[in-house]
Amino acid sequence: MCQVEVKNVSVHYGNVCALNGVNLKIKKGDFLGIIGPNGGGKTTLLKVILGLTKPSSGKVIKKNGTTISYVPQFSSFSRGFPIKVLDVILMGRLKKGINFFHRYSKEDIEKADYIMEKLQISKFRDRQIGQLSGGQLQKVLIARALAVEPNILLLDEPTASLDTNSKTEIYQLLKSINKDVTVVLVSHDIGTISSYVKSIACINQSLFYHGKTELSRESIEKTYGCPIDLVAHGFPHRVLRKHEENGND
Ligand SMILES: Nc1ncnc2c1ncn2[C@@H]1O[C@H](COP(=O)(O)OP(=O)(O)OP(=O)(O)O)[C@@H](O)[C@H]1O
Fold first, then answer.
1. Is the beta carbon of 38 within 6 A of some atom in ligand 1?
2. For burial by CB atoms within 10 Å, which of 42, 80, 131, 224 has the most?
């Protein structure tokens, strides 16, 4: 069953074409990895799905009752802000923005505690977020997104600048979350994500491929516009030869 359908979507920022005629169906229960080069339009695609960016043409159709939640890159989240882990997670329970007199219900706090327990971060409940490691903060941001009780979770590079162990932990966590929630993940980590996700979409303005994780070297090279070598761990890919615009490489 399709929860979200991106239909012939193009997005232009002034003269820049970020997406060009993209068609993509997100099925219930999928764990979709979105890959593509820098500036290829991956974040724009997430923003269009969230309704934060309006397509220049085309549309996004969401099945009734679909709730989408978003986990930003933790590096873009200000750690200097003096706020406790519990309070960050409770932000996910705010339905209509912050009201100065807002008080969270007992149910909201129970829900936040339940999620912290599930993600094994209860020990950080009363800690300031500035005192967390990158991996711990990423889990807190995932917990905040889960507090919304979404049926689709979108994540933008959740493992960027994490060490290998923290990366593995986050991917394992997402795999377990995927038992109940559809997960869509933007990543540069092609080699690693392909062993966790159920399907892959390759984006570089246009959608070059969407399907099983056993994607061919040809699909990847078409997406990246240059020959690349897949590396299972560490760097996501290595450029083999210089790409020339006329394709005579
Ligand atoms: N608000 C904006 N105003 C103008 N141009 C933008 C804006 N947001 C993105 N772009 C441009 O649109 C293109 C796609 O950007 P986007 O951030 O979606 O790519 P991305 O695949 O997520 O890149 P990265 O992997 O580097 O994060 C880029 O050329 C970028 O410079």
1. yes
2. 42
In a domain, 125, yes or no: no
**Whole-Å CA distances, 95 to 46, 67, 92, 149, 166:** 21, 12, 8, 11, 31
The one-letter amino acid code at 101 reads F
Query: Strands 57-62 and 2-13, how do they pair?
Result: antiparallel
Identify the DSSP state of 213.
S
Query: 26 with 182: CB under 8 angstroms?
Result: yes
Residue 41 lies in a domain: yes
19, 44, 76: residue to mutate for ligand 1 pocket, most atoms within 8 A of CB: 44
pLDDT for position 227: 61
CATH number for position 219: 3.40.50.300
In-domain check, residue 81? no
Quick: pLDDT tens for 120-155. 999 999 999 999 998 899 999 999 999 999 999 999
- Indicate the pTM of the whole model: 0.86
CA of 11 to the centre of ligand 1 (A): 10
Residue 138 lies in a domain: no
**In terms of residue numbers, what domain contains 218?**
1-67+152-159+181-248
Index of the ligand 1 atom closest to the CA of residue 40: 21
pLDDT band with cut points at 50, 70 and 90 for residue 11: very high
Phi, psi of 46 (to 5 degrees): -60, -45
Number of domains in the chain: 1
